[in-house]
Amino acid sequence: MCIAIEYTNYTGLTINNENITGSCKGPILRIVNNPKLEFLSLSRKLVKNWKSEPNAIRVRGNRKLSESDLKRLKKTNNKSGYNWDLQEIGECAIPKPFLSFKQLEPTCVSFYGPLTVGPEAKAVPHKPSDVHEFNFTGCIQVENTKLKDVTFLLAFSKFKLVPFCPQYIRNNKNLCPKNLKYLNVIFTNIKIENNLGDPCSECIGGQVSEQYLSESAGCSFVYGDLIIANWKGWHNAILAIPCKIFFNITLKICHFL
C-alpha cells in the first residue's frame, strides 16, 4: 500500500500507523502540495520501521507547514539509514493548471509539482524580470495549447527534475518547434514533439553592424556570440538590438576606439 495526500485542505495530519509498506514507484507516503497544512506528526514506531527504507516519505510544496515540524523531520533524516525527500520552509505548490503568474503566491520563491499547461491556455504573459526568478522542483507538461511561445518557462529555469515525472511539450499547433532548442538544456530529458506552428526565425550570432541588425530584425531567438569590434566610440547601433531571447551567447567587445 502506498498513500498519497495531495492537494487537500487539511490543516494538520497525525499518522499513528506502526508501519506502512508498499511497492509503488516513488515514496510510500507522499504529502504534497497541501496549501493549508500547518502541522504533521508521524508515530515513533513508524519512523523507526522506516529506517533504511529507501525513499519512504516525500513532504513537498506544503507552504504553511511549520518550521518546527520540518526541523524534526530533517533531524531524523540526517541520521544514518534515512533518505527522505523533504521541502524547505515555505516551499509552495505550483498552481495546476498553470495559466498566469498572477496565480503565484507573492511570497513564494520556490515551487514544487508538475507545471501543467493545457487547452485552456492561449498565452502566458510575462516580464523580462521574470527570467530565472523562481526555484522549481517538478516537471514541465505543455500539451494541446494555443500558445505561440513558451518563453515564460524561463522563469522556472532554476530547475530540478522530480523522478518519474514525465516532461513534454507536444501537440501545440501554434508553437514553432525551431525555437525550443534552449529548453532541452534547461529542462532535463524533455520531449518536444508534434508542435506544428508556422516557421519562425532564429538566428546565429555575428559581428554587430547595421547589416547584421537589418538581417536579424525578425529573429525571436539568437544563438552564439555577438561581436562588437572596430567601433569608434559608443555606437547607436547597439541601442537598436531588439529585445530577444539570447542563448549560449558571449558578448565580445574588441578594438574599441
UniProtKB/TrEMBL annotation:
This is Receptor L domain protein.
